[in-house]
Structure to design on (477 residues):
C-alpha cells in the first residue's frame, strides 16, 4: 500500500472522535466485521489509527477507498466546513431525465481532460444528494488529498453547494465540469454562505416555515403571548404592545424554526448624510462601510430582538428578507433619483 | 404590574388599583435600560419619592458585561432619595432574597406594618455617611 495513502488514512482516523470511529469504519465498509472485531477502541487514538492502517495494509487500500472514508467523515461533520451556494441555469425548459452514470462520466471526463492529476470520488445519499470529493493536483504534482473540494448536488434542483479548498483557481474548472455534466449552460454564485449545509438547503429549497399573509388577520384568535404559566397576580401593563410586536414578528419570521446562518454582511456604498453645518465629508463620494452581524444562530437572534425589547418592531426589511431573498451578503447603494433612498442590489 | 416604561397606558387606568411601591429595574448590561428609567422617572408624581420608589439593579453577577457604572446608579438613587438594591436574577439564592426584601418593603409601603411608615423606613435604609 502506498505510504501516502497509509498516512492519509491514519490522519483521517485521528480526526474522528474516539466514540465514533467504530461506527464510521462500519459505514465505510472497507474493513470486514471480523477485522473490526480485532480493533481495540479503548486505547488512545494514535494506537487505534495505527491498527486501522495495518488492517488497511492487509486489504491493500488505495487512494479511492481512502477518499471514500474522507467523504463519510465530511458528510457527518459537514457543519465544520463553510458552504457556498451556486445556482445553475438551463437554456431551455425541457426536463431531461437525469442519469447518474452519465453525470459521473461527463464530470470526470471534463475535469480530467484539463487536469490529469485529480482524485474524484462520488457518493450518493438517500435524500437524493450526490456528494463529490475532488482532490486537486497540477500537471507535475500528485493531488493534494488534504485540501479537497466538496460538492453537494441534488439532481432534481438547479442548486449546487460547494465547499471549496483554499485553492480558488480550481473553482472555474469545477463549475464548468458541473454544468457540462448536468446539462445546464450557466452557473453563478449566490450571495449565500453558511456552515450549516442543511440550513442552506432549507433556504433555497424553501423548506423552512414561511408566513403567508392572509387577508383577514383580525379573524384569527389572538394567540396567547405568554405561553408559560404566568401567575394571575402579575398584570402586564403593555400587553397590547407585546401582542403587536409578537404579531409583527410572526409575519416577518413565520412561526417555525429559522434556518441556521452565522452572519449577514452589508457592504454600504452610500453617501454619508450629516448636518450640512457640520461640514463633515464634504466630498460627494460614497462612504464605504461594512456592517457584519454574527451570531451562533443569526436568524433566531434577530427574531428574539423585538420581543426582548432590544429593537423596535417591525425590524428592518434588510434583516428580515434574508431567507426570502436567499442571501446573506448585500451591497447597498444610493438610489439615483429625487429621493435618495437605499437600493439593495447584488 | 409589569410595564416596560412610564407613563402607563391610559386605556388600563380604570383597571388599576392604587400603587404602593414602584421598583425601577435597571439591567447593568444595558445603557438603554438606564436611559429608559431616567425618562420614566419624570412621569412619577413627587409624592412617591417619599419612600415608595426603589431602584433594582440586575445582572451584577456578570462583571464582564457591565455597561453602566454602579456610581451612576448610586448617584441616581441619591438624587431621587430612594434606595438602590443590587441583585443577580440568574442566581436562585439572591433572586429569592431580593424578592423577599421587596415584599417586606411593599408591606411597609402599603401600610401593613404598624408603626413603620414608608418614609421612616427609607431614612433607615440610607447609609450613615450620607448625612
Amino acid at each position: 500500500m502506498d505510504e501516502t495513502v497509509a498516512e492519509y488514512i491514519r490522519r483521517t482516523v485521528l480526526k474522528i472522535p474516539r466514540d465514533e470511529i467504530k461506527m464510521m469504519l462500519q459505514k465505510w465498509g472497507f474493513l470486514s466485521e471480523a477485522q473490526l472485531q480485532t480493533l481495540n477502541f479503548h486505547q488512545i487514538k494514535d494506537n487505534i489509527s495505527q491498527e486501522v492502517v495495518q488492517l488497511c495494509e492487509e486489504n491493500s487500500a488505495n487512494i479511492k477507498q481512502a477518499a471514500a472514508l474522507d467523504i463519510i467523515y465530511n458528510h457527518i461533520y459537514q457543519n465544520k466546513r463553510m458552504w457556498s451556494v451556486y445556482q445553475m441555469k438551463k437554456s431551455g425548459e425541457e426536463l431531461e431525465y437525469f442519469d447518474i452514470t452519465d453525470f459521473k462520466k461527463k464530470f470526470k471526463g471534463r475535469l480530467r481532460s484539463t487536469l490529469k492529476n485529480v482524485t474524484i470520488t462520488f457518493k450518493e445519499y438517500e435524500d437524493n444528494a450526490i456528494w463529490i470529493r475532488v482532490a486537486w493536483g497540477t500537471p507535475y504534482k500528485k493531488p493534494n488529498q488534504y485540501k479537497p473540494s466538496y460538492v453537494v448536488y441534488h439532481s432534481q434542483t438547479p442548486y449546487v453547494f460547494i465547499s471549496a479548498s483554499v485553492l480558488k483557481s480550481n473553482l472555474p474548472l469545477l463549475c464548468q465540469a458541473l454544468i457540462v455534466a448536468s446539462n445546464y449552460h450557466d452557473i453563478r454564485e449566490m450571495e449565500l454562505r453558511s456552515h450549516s449545509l442543511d440550513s442552506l438547503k432549507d433556504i433555497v429549497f424553501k423548506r423552512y416555515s414561511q408566513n403567508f399573509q392572509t387577508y383577514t388577520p383580525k379573524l384569527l384568535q389572538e394567540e396567547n403571548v405568554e405561553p408559560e404559566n404566568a401567575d394571575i397576580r402579575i398584570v402586564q401593563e403593555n400587553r397590547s404592545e407585546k401582542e403587536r410586536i409578537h404579531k409583527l414578528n410572526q409575519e416577518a419570521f413565520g412561526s417555525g424554526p429559522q434556518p441556521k446562518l452565522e452572519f449577514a454582511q452589508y457592504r454600504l456604498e452610500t453617501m454619508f448624510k450629516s448636518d450640512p453645518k457640520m461640514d463633515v465629508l464634504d466630498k460627494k463620494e460614497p462612504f464605504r462601510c461594512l456592517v457584519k452581524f454574527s451570531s451562533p444562530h443569526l436568524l433566531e437572534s434577530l427574531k428574539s430582538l423585538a420581543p426582548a425589547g432590544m429593537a423596535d418592531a417591525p425590524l428592518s426589511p434588510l434583516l428580515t428578507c434574508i431567507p426570502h431573498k436567499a442571501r446573506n451578503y448585500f451591497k447597498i447603494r444610493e438610489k439615483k433619483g429625487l429621493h435618495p433612498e437605499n437600493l439593495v442590489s447584488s | 404590574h409589569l410595564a416596560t416604561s412610564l407613563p402607563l397606558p391610559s386605556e388600563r387606568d380604570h383597571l388599576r388599583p392604587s400603587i404602593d411601591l414602584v421598583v425601577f429595574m435597571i439591567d447593568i448590561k444595558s445603557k438603554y435600560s438606564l436611559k429608559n428609567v431616567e425618562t420614566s422617572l419624570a412621569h412619577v408624581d413627587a409624592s412617591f419619592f417619599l419612600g415608595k420608589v426603589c431602584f433594582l439593579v440586575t445582572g451584577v453577577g456578570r462583571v464582564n458585561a457591565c455597561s453602566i457604572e454602579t456610581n451612576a446608579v448610586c448617584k441616581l438613587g441619591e438624587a431621587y432619595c430612594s434606595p438602590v438594591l443590587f441583585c443577580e436574577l440568574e442566581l436562585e439564592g439572591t433572586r429569592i432574597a431580593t424578592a423577599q426584601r421587596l415584599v417586606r418593603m411593599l408591606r411597609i409601603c402599603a401600610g401593613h406594618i404598624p408603626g413603620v411608615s414608608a418614609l421612616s423606613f427609607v431614612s433607615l435604609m440610607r447609609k450613615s455617611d450620607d448625612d
The radius of gyration of chain A is 26 Å.
